[in-house]
Amino acid sequence: MSAIAADNHFRWMVTLGSQPDGYGCVIHPRIVLTSTNAFKTPGLGEGIQGLLSPCNFSNDASKFYCFRVGRFEKERKLAGLVLDEEFQDSDGKMPGSYPEIADAPPVPGQMLCVLTKQSLIGGHGANWDVAPEERGNYVCYSGGTVSLLRSPDKLLYTISGILTDDDSVGGAVFDQSGKIFGVVSGFLKHDCDPTRRDATRGAGRFIVFSPVFNTRTELLKLANGNERSG
C-alpha cells in the first residue's frame, strides 16, 4: 500500500454520529461518501440530518459538521451526505485534493486497502506492551484481495486476508493509488470452531463492500442541490 494514499485517506476519513456509528470519506469539500449500513438511526433516508466529525480514532471530536442525506441507495447500500460547510480535517486544514472514484468494477484477485481502528495487546511474543489507555487508538492500514461470493440470489464483493476487530462500516475501499472502488458495508465470518487455540475475533472474516463505479458524477451533483434517492 502506498503510504501517501493511506495518509490521504486518513485525512479524508470522517466519523458519523456523536456516538460514532460508522465511517465515511470526503470526496468533495461538501460531499461525503458512505454506506447506508453506517447509520444506527432507524428509518434513515433522503433528507435526514445528522452530525459527523474528522476521524481521529479517539473519543474526542475536534469539530462536528452538520449534514443531510442527499443520496440514498438502499439496494446498493450507498449514501451521499451534503455538509452545511466545507470540510476541514482534524488539524483544521482543508484537504489539498480529493480521491478519484473508479469508473470500472473491481476484479477478483485485485489488491484493495482499508483503514481500520485496531486494538493492540502485548504479551503474545511481542517485546513491547500497550498501555491500557492506548488500546484501540491505533489506525491500521491494511491490504487484501478481492473475492466474489455468489449465492442463488446475490453477488457480493468482499476483501479477504485482512484481520481486524473493527466492526464499523462506511469507510472507503481503495487501491494503492488512493482511487476508491467501494465502501465497507458489512462483514461475513467463516463458520469455524471457536474453541481452537488460534481462533481470534477477526480471523476468517470477509470484509463486504459496495462497489462505487460510475457514481462520481451523480454524487457531485449533490453539491449543486440535485439530490436523488433510489
* Broad CATH class of the largest domain: Mainly Beta
State Rg.
17 Å
Number of helices: 2
CATH architecture verdict of the largest domain: Beta Barrel
H and E string = HEEEEEEEEEEEEHE
Q: Output the CATH topology of the largest domain.
A: Thrombin, subunit H
Q: What is the approximate shape?
A: globular
Structure description:
The chain folds into 2 domains: 13-95 and 214-229, Beta Barrel (Thrombin, subunit H), CATH 2.40.10; 111-211, Thrombin, subunit H. It has 2 helices and 13 strands, in the order αββββββββββββαβ. The protein has helices at 3-12, 216-220; strands spanning 13-16, 22-28, 31-34, 49-54, 65-73, 78-83, 111-118, 138-151, 154-160, 172-174, 180-189, 205-211, 228-229. The longest helix has 10 residues, at 3-12. The radius of gyration is 17 Å and the shape is globular.
Describe the secondary structure blueprint for this structure.
Layout lengths: L2 H10 E4 L5 E7 L2 E4 L14 E6 L10 E9 L4 E6 L27 E8 L19 E14 L2 E7 L11 E3 L5 E10 L15 E7 L4 H5 L7 E2 L1
Parallel strand pairs: 5-13
Antiparallel strand pairs: 1-2, 1-4, 2-3, 3-6, 4-5, 5-6, 7-8, 8-9, 9-12, 10-11, 11-12
